[in-house]
Write a structure and sequence with these properties.
single chain, 555 residues, alpha/beta, Rossmann fold, Zinc Finger, Delta Prime, domain 3, 5 domains, five-stranded parallel β-sheet, five-stranded mixed β-sheet, 23 helices
Length: 555
C-alpha cells in the first residue's frame, strides 16, 4: 500500500528535523546531558515539526543506545514508539479528548512506573482544545509530577493555553520554514524517490506551502501523481494555479485602468477552470510583493521571485503608486472575505477587478486618494492643497473632491502631452441623467424643500456623491427633479459616468419623499422658479389656517 510522502519522510531523529536547528540542538544537548524538563510546550504553525519533535524526544529519552542525544531508531523501544505499540508513550488528541475525565484518567495512569523504558511520556496534541476543567486537572499533575513522567504539549494557538500551564512548561517556538529550506528538502526527497523535480518547481511548491513542510510534501504528492518530469508549468496546472504572466497581465490592465481587458483575462482564466478563490488569494500575495517592491530599497530578501519578475514588481509599483497598491489590497481582502461566505465567487472577483481598474467606482476615501495621486502624477506638479485643511485623523471626502477638481482643471489646462496616455483612458459606460422634456421653454419649477433631508440620507449612502453636493440646491417641476450644483461641478461628471451615483441619489430622494423623480440638471435659461421658499410667518399662517384659527396680520 502506498504511503504518503509526509508520513514516509517524517523526521526520525533531531538531525532530520528541517528548519528548526536551534530547537533540535537544544533538545539533543538536554538528552545527552540528562538535564530534562518534566514538561515541554511546543508551539507554532501547522507542519513545522512540533509533533515529530515530540516523538523524537520520546524515543531519545527512552532509547537503549542513544547517539549524542539522538535516538538510535534500531532498538526495540525506538521501533515500538515508531509503531505506536509501546505503552510507555501515549499520544492524546485533545481535540477529541478534551474533557476533564480524560485528564483524570491520565493522572491516575501516570503514577504507574514505566513498563519497558525509563520514562512515561504523554504527548498532548492540540492542547488548546482542552476544556477549562481539563486544564485545571492537568495543572495539578504538572505542579507535582512523578519523576518518571514527561509531558509534551503541542499547540498551534498558544494564546488559548492558560498562563498557569505556560509557567510550568519549558517552551519552544517553532517558526515557519523558509521557502529555500523547504525546496532543498523537496529536491532531496525527490532524488531519493527517483522523481524528476525541477528546481523552479520545487521552489514554487515550497512557496505555496507557506512555511509548512507537511503541506509541501502533500502538494508534492499531488503533482507527482501523473508521473514524468515535474516542471513549474506542471505544478501550476496540477494544483490549479495561475501563472505569474497572467497575474502580471491582470495587474497591468488594472494599472492602465482598462476594465475591459481585466474582464477578458479573467474570462480566459475561468475557461481554464481556475479556482477564483485561489486566484483571489494569489492576487493578494502578488500585490503584497508589489507593495514590498515599492517600499523597500532592496526587496530581494523579502520577495521570492526571478530577477525579471522583481523588475516587473518595481515597474507596477511606480505606475500605481503606493495608494493605488494599498487600495487594490483592500479591495481584494474584502472580496476574499465575501467569497468565503457566498456562492457567487466569479461575480465577486470580477466586480472587484473592475473596481480596482477604475477608482471612480470606489466611493470611499481610499478611492479618492488614488484619483488624486494619479492626477498629481499626470500634471507633473506638486500636490494641490485644499483651502480648508483636512483633519489629521481622517480625510473628508468633500475636501478630497475639491482637490480632485483643482487637479483635473490643472491637468486639462497644462501643455500638450501632459495628459495620461491613451491606454490609460478608460471608456466609461455612459449613464446620462434623465433628459428634460424637449421643446419646452421656461418650464415653471419651485424650490425642493426637502433637499437638505435628501443630502443627509445621501451622506449615509454615497459619501463621495454627497461631497459634490455640499453647496447645491434643487428644484422640482412635476415628476422632474433638477439639481443645481454649478455648471462645472464634479457632480455632473460623476452622475454621467457612474450609474451607481445616479441610483444612489434617486433612492435617497425616494426615501425622503416616497416619490420617484426623474433627474436632470438645473439650467436657469430653460427653467423658471415660480415659487419662493416660504418664510417662518408663511408656515405659521398655513398651520393656523389648517387648524381653523383666524389669524390677521397687521402692518
Amino acid at each position: 500500500m502506498y504511503q504518503a510522502l509526509y508520513r514516509k519522510w517524517r523526521p526520525k531523529t533531531f538531525d532530520d528535523l528541517v528548519g528548526q536547528d536551534a530547537i533540535s540542538t537544544t533538545l539533543k544537548h538536554q538528552v545527552a546531558g540528562g538535564k530534562l524538563s518534566h514538561a515541554y510546550l511546543f508551539c507554532g504553525t501547522r507542519g513545522t515539526g512540533k509533533t515529530s519533535s515530540a516523538k523524537i524526544l520520546a524515543k531519545a529519552v527512552n532509547c537503549i543506545s542513544p547517539q549524542e542525544g539522538n535516538p538510535c531508531c534500531e532498538c526495540d523501544i525506538c521501533r515500538g514508539i515508531e509503531e505506536e505499540s509501546l505503552l510507555d508513550v501515549t499520544e492524546i488528541d485533545a481535540a477529541s479528548n478534551s474533557g476533564v475525565d480524560n485528564i483524570r484518567e491520565l493522572r491516575e495512569e501516570a503514577h504507574f512506573t514505566p513498563v519497558a523504558g525509563k520514562y512515561r511520556v504523554y504527548i498532548i496534541d492540540e492542547t488548546h482544545m482542552l476544556s477549562v476543567g481539563a486544564f485545571n486537572a492537568l495543572l495539578k499533575i504538572l505542579e507535582e509530577p512523578p519523576e518518571h513522567v514527561i509531558f509534551i504539549l503541542a499547540t498551534t494557538e498558544l494564546h488559548k493555553v492558560p498562563a498557569t500551564i505556560l509557567s510550568r512548561c519549558q517552551r519552544f517556538d517553532f517558526s515557519r520554514i523558509d521557502s529555500a529550506t523547504i525546496a532543498a528538502r523537496l529536491s532531496y526527497i525527490a532524488k531519493e524517490e527517483n522523481i524528476h523535480l525541477m528546481e523552479d518547481a520545487a521552489l514554487l511548491v515550497a512557496k505555496l506551502a507557506d512555511g509548512s513542510m507537511r503541506d509541501a510534501l502533500s502538494l508534492l504528492d499531488l503533482v507527482i501523481a501523473q508521473g514524468g518530469e515535474i516542471t513549474k508549468e506542471v505544478v501550476t496546472q496540477r494544483i490549479g494555479l495561475v501563472g505569474r504572466e497572467h497575474l502580471f497581465a491582470l495587474a497591468q490592465a488594472v494599472a492602465y485602468g482598462n476594465g475591459g481587458e481585466v474582464l477578458e483575462v479573467a474570462q480566459s482564466l475561468w475557461e481554464r477552470s481556475v479556482d477564483y478563490l485561489r486566484l483571489c488569494e494569489q492576487l493578494i500575495g502578488f500585490y503584497r510583493d508589489v507593495m514590498v517592491a515599492g517600499a523597500v530599497q532592496e526587496p530581494g530578501e523579502l520577495i521570492s521571485c526571478l530577477p525579471d519578475e522583481l523588475e516587473g514588481f518595481r515597474t507596477l509599483a511606480r505606475q500605481m503608486g503606493m495608494e493605488g497598491v494599498m487600495g487594490c489590497l483592500t479591495v481584494l481582502q474584502d472580496t476574499l472575505a465575501r467569497m468565503g461566505r457566498g456562492a457567487q465567487r466569479r461575480t465577486e472577483l470580477e466586480a472587484a477587478l473592475v473596481r480596482m481598474a477604475d477608482p471612480h467606482l470606489r466611493t470611499g476615501t481610499a478611492g479618492l486618494l488614488v484619483r488624486i495621486e494619479k492626477l498629481e502624477r499626470q500634471g507633473g506638479s506638486q500636490p494641490v492643497q485644499s483651502a480648508v485643511p483636512a483633519p489629521a485623523a481622517a480625510v473628508i471626502p468633500a475636501e478630497l473632491l475639491k482637490r480632485i477638481n483643482a487637479l483635473e482643471q490643472q491637468v486639462s489646462q497644462g501643455p500638450a502631452g501632459v495628459s495620461a496616455p491613451a491606454a490609460q483612458k478608460v471608456a466609461q459606460p455612459q449613464a446620462p441623467m434623465d433628459p428634460p422634456p424637449e421643446k419646452i421653454e421656461k418650464i415653471p419649477t419651485e424650490p425642493f424643500l426637502e433637499w437638505s433631508q435628501v443630502l443627509d440620507v445621501l451622506n449615509q449612502k454615497n459619501r463621495a456623491l454627497f461631497g459634490t453636493l455640499v453647496d447645491s440646491s434643487a428644484y422640482v417641476g412635476g415628476d422632474l427633479l433638477l439639481v443645481d450644483a454649478g455648471a462645472d461641478s464634479m457632480f455632473a461628471k460623476m452622475v454621467r459616468g457612474d450609474s451607481y451615483a445616479k441610483e444612489s441619489l434617486r433612492a435617497a430622494v425616494e426615501q425622503v419623499t416616497g416619490k420617484k423623480y426623474r433627474l436632470g440638471p438645473y439650467n436657469p435659461q430653460r427653467y423658471e422658479v415660480k415659487a419662493k421658499i416660504p418664510d417662518k410667518l408663511d408656515e405659521l399662517l398655513k398651520k393656523a389656517s389648517e387648524l381653523g384659527v383666524d389669524v390677521q396680520v397687521k402692518e
